[in-house]
Amino acid sequence: MRTALILGGALALAVPAGAQHIDVPRTLGPAEGREALGRSLDWLVTNQNDDGSWACGVLDGLLELGFSIESFYAWQVASNALACLALLDAPETPARRAALERGLKWLDETRPPKRGSDWDIDYVWGGLYGFAAASEIASDPRFQQGEWKTLVDRVGRRYFEILEKNQIPEGGWGYYDDPIFSERPKWATSFSTATVLPALKRGEELGWVGDPKIRERATGYVSRCALPNGAFAYDERVIPWIGGDSINGVKGSLSRIQVCNWALYSVGEKKITLDRLREGLESFFAEHRFLDVAFMDPVPHEAYYYNSGYFYLFGHYYAARVIELLPEAEREGWHARLRPHLVKVMRDSGASTDFLTSSYMQVAGTAFTAMALDLGLPPEAQSVEKVPAKPKR
Question: What is 30-375's CATH topology?
Answer without folding.
Answer: Glycosyltransferase (1.50.10)
